[in-house]
Specification:
The chain is of the alpha/beta class and 242 residues long. Helix content is 34%, strand content 21%. The chain is built from 9 helices and 9 strands. The chain has a 7-stranded mixed sheet, sandwiched between helices. The protein has a two-stranded antiparallel ribbon with strand order 7-8. Helix 4 (81-89) links the parallel strand 2 and strand 3. The model has no long low-confidence stretch (mean pLDDT 91).
């Protein structure tokens, strides 16, 4: 099983069009407001910080480079070759390695695990963008990467985020400039029920170790000049509690 060609091409088109400028992409907020906050929640649950870290759905690598400063081996993995081109251009020193990766494809997850061993996984806002029929396979792939010793940190939009996004998209003045390309390329956010993420994890053989709520910070601003933040939930999961 692998992602649909429509889904893959939607992301290729988006990233081919996306500018390299810092903060030009809707969700590409500075790490101090994103991965930095998440890492503070994640680190306490790591059984071994020396394991490789996989930034799954790394996009242009902004969070990847931040994480690469804190972990000995960092792999930025993404479905889109165009996204990885952005990531490599922004990382001339090669802080991380970048890999074309279909998280839904079982053999790809098994191959990467064979190369890295058990790994820690960071994934922000990817599951809700996947096709509904692909979501369990994606979480199964994460479980493969995590193995016995790794931990996964997932951040996903809450159900309550969708009406916020739809309200922005349907504004009389049109969607905000950084949100418009997402809808134009057919990757409008889907809805993942809040209770579904823990269910996907349990079905994949993982235990939910911690969870909570934290706004997902974007790079866009509303008409009143305040930064747009979307309700989101985070979860830490692993094979077992040590």
């Amino acid at each position: 099983m692998s992602v649909t060609s429509r889904y893959r091409e939607a992301w290729e088109g988006f990233w081919r069009e996306a500018p390299d400028d810092e903060g030009a992409v809707f969700w590409d907020a500075e790490p101090a407001l994103t991965a930095g906050r998440h890492l503070a929640l994640f680190e306490a649950h790591l059984t071994d910080p020396a394991l490789a870290m996989v930034d799954l759905g790394c996009g242009n690598g902004t969070q990847t480079r931040f994480l690469a400063e804190r972990f000995p081996r960092l792999v930025g993995a993404d479905l889109s070759a165009a996204a990885l081109d952005h990531a490599r251009r922004a990382d001339p020193a090669g802080q991380a390695t970048y890999r074309l990766f279909d998280a839904v494809e079982k053999t790809e997850a098994e191959t990467l695990h064979a190369e890295l061993g058990d790994a820690n996984v960071y994934m922000r806002g990817v599951l809700h963008q996947a096709e509904p029929d692909d979501r369990q396979s994606m979480v199964d792939g994460i479980a493969t990467l995590v193995g016995e010793r790794g931990r996964a940190f997932l951040v996903e939009l809450s159900e309550s985020a969708k009406p916020v996004l739809m309200g922005l998209a349907q504004s009389p003045s049109g969607p905000p400039p950084k949100l418009a390309p997402i809808f134009r390329h057919g990757i409008a956010p889907g809805e993942v029920a809040d209770e579904s993420v823990p269910e996907y994890l349990r079905a994949a053989g993982l235990t939910v170790l911690a969870s909570g709520e934290l706004p997902l910070v974007t790079t866009e601003y509303g008409p009143d000049g305040t930064r747009i933040e979307l309700p989101s939930k985070w979860v830490v999961a692993g094979r077992s509690v040590n």
